[in-house]
């Protein structure tokens, strides 16, 4: 009878380092056979914790993860080596022994509901715009006003009642009416279209009558940027979302030098920004995304959103969530700015930092999937398509 497929059950979660000897030969032979491979628990050669792929590593068509989803199957490049992943129970108790914590929770609708973040975003029948909070965004600068616009529009699409965008005054004229639902608060910029440290006082004054502050998209770098951000970081008694250039400003003076904030703080770095925050290289961040995110959030008492395919949300208390929604078409300018607005919009509605970050990355990814499906080719997707799909 001809052989039509292979089952890989060579190596499991307990192995360390690259497969050696006869294991390495068998893995190479299996891959070279061209036959579809079903991996039991995880492909041999894959690091179960990080998703790192050793040489050699089984390239599976399907992986049947036993009892629990192994973290390494959710992260690239491991996710690619695993193929389609299913979890099957084989009699192992579904509850972890005391003292053992899951490496991460996949953000399904059920997991979000359990977290208290309603993926249906139901509205109260008697709700009004005041019920759903007011976002203040400090973002944009002359070459990057689009980043601010995308973030502000995303906050509204996330369902906050009102959104105000504080922006350098020179940006105002061309933006008037761009998003009529949005309020614009020009701050003095001496006609430069850039931010300056004194503008922080104006942002803080605006924040008194608003529920959450998001800072960073398209902010640019400018003289006195450290003093500007420090004033917001220390002065904002409301939840704060920090993204893009504001993360680079945090990193510039060493993140350890920034005091802990009392109010909730969500940082949303992509791997390049995470590298700047931690002093690691981008490759080092990517090699152990779960570990790096978990360690940083716990050490600094922030909610950390480490973006990229399979975004991770790490809570200050050690919990880690993995988002599996999204589409490669989202690899286009402005999609991160859009996520910042979504998370801020959810915070304004009263979700806590972890709920807002978890639901935010989930909805952002779902919208990306829908936007991709609507285009003739997902490579043509723009961030505006994601906003329209929210
Ligand atoms: N329309 C507008 O106004 C727009 C304005 N924008 C604004 O531009 C400002 C600068 O922000 P930015 O993110 O473009 O620059 P930057 O921080 O140097 O990061 C780039 C480097 O990071 C890395 N990297 C990123 N992702 C990675 C991944 N998944 N996996 C691995 N690596 C990854 C990667 O590094 P590499 O691999 O090349 O070493 C990449 O080259 C900011 O204010 C933003 O809001 C943009 O939003 C666009 C639309
Ligand atoms: N291949 C992918 N699969 C899923 N999501 C992706 C993919 N590539 C990018 N994204 C998402 O798109 C967003 C990109 O954010 P970022 O790099 O900050 O972009 P920008 O700075 O242009 O706004 C992140 O939320 C990221 O998770």
UniProtKB/TrEMBL annotation:
Residues at which AMP binds: 307-311, 336
Residue spans crossing the bilayer: none
Catalytic activity: (6S)-NADHX + ADP = AMP + phosphate + NADH + H(+); (6S)-NADPHX + ADP = AMP + phosphate + NADPH + H(+)
PROSITE patterns with a match to the protein in the record: YJEF_C_3, YJEF_N
Pfam families the UniProt entry points to: Carb_kinase, YjeF_N
UniProt cross-references to SUPFAM superfamilies, sorted A to Z: Ribokinase-like, YjeF N-terminal domain-like
GO biological process terms held by the UniProt record: metabolite repair; nicotinamide nucleotide metabolic process
Keyword terms: ATP-binding, Lyase, NAD, NADP, Nucleotide-binding
UniProt domain YjeF C-terminal: residue ranges: 112-390
Family: Belongs to the NnrD/CARKD family. In the C-terminal section; belongs to the NnrD/CARKD family.
Classification via NCBIfam families: yjeF_cterm (TIGR00196)
Gene3D superfamilies the UniProt entry points to: 3.40.1190.20, YjeF N-terminal domain
UniProt GO MF annotations: ADP-dependent NAD(P)H-hydrate dehydratase activity; ATP binding; NAD(P)HX epimerase activity
Name this polypeptide is given: ADP-dependent (S)-NAD(P)H-hydrate dehydratase
Domain spans labelled YjeF N-terminal: 1-98
UniProt source species: Paenibacillus faecis
Superkingdom field: Bacteria
Keyword Hydrolase in record: no
HAMAP family per the UniProt record, alphabetical: NADHX_dehydratase (MF_01965)
Positions annotated to bind (6S)-NADPHX: 147, 218, 270, 337
Cofactor(s) the protein requires to work: K(+); Mg(2+)
Subunit structure comment from the entry: Homotetramer.
EC top class, as a word: lyase
Known function: Bifunctional enzyme that catalyzes the epimerization of the S- and R-forms of NAD(P)HX and the dehydration of the S-form of NAD(P)HX at the expense of ADP, which is converted to AMP. This allows the repair of both epimers of NAD(P)HX, a damaged form of NAD(P)H that is a result of enzymatic or heat-dependent hydration.
């Amino acid at each position: 009878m001809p052989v039509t497929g292979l089952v890989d059950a060579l190596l499991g979660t307990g192995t360390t380092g690259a497969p050696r000897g006869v294991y390495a030969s068998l893995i190479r032979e299996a891959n070279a056979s061209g036959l579809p491979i079903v991996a039991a628990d995880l492909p041999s050669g894959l690091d179960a914790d990080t998703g790192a792929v050793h040489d050699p590593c089984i390239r599976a068509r399907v992986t049947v993860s036993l009892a629990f989803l192994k973290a390494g199957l959710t992260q690239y490049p491991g996710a690619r080596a695993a193929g389609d992943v299913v979890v099957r129970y084989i009699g192992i108790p579904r509850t972890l022994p005391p003292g053992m914590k899951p490496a991460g929770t996949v953000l399904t609708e059920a997991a979000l509901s359990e977290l208290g973040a309603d993926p249906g975003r139901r509205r109260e029948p008697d709700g009004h715009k005041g019920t759903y909070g007011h976002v203040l965004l400090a973002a944009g600068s002359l070459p990057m006003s689009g980043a601010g616009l995308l973030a502000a529009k995303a906050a509204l699409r996330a369902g906050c009642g009102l959104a105000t965008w504080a922006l350098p005054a020179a940006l105002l004229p061309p933006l008037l009416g761009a998003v009529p639902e949005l309020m614009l608060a020009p701050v003095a910029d001496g006609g430069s279209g850039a931010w300056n440290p004194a503008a922080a006082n104006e942002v803080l004054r605006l924040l008194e009558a608003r529920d959450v502050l998001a800072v960073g998209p398209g902010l640019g770098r400018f003289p006195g940027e450290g003093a500007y951000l420090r004033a917001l970081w220390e002065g904002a008694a409301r939840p704060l979302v920090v993204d893009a250039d504001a993360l680079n400003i945090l990193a510039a003076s060493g993140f350890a030098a920034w005091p802990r904030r009392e109010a909730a703080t969500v940082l949303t770095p992509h791997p390049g920004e995470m590298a700047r925050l931690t002093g690691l290289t981008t490759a080092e961040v990517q090699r152990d995304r779960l570990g790096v995110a978990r360690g940083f959030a716990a050490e600094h008492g922030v909610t950390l959103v480490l973006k990229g395919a399979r975004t991770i949300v790490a809570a200050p208390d050690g919990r880690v969530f993995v988002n599996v929604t999204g589409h490669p078409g989202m690899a286009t300018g402005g999609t991160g700015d859009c996520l910042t607005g979504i998370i801020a919009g959810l915070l304004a509605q009263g979700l806590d930092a972890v709920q807002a970050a978890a639901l935010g990355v989930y909805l952002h990814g779902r919208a990306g999937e829908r936007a991709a499906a609507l285009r003739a080719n997902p490579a043509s997707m723009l961030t505006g398509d994601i906003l329209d799909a929210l």
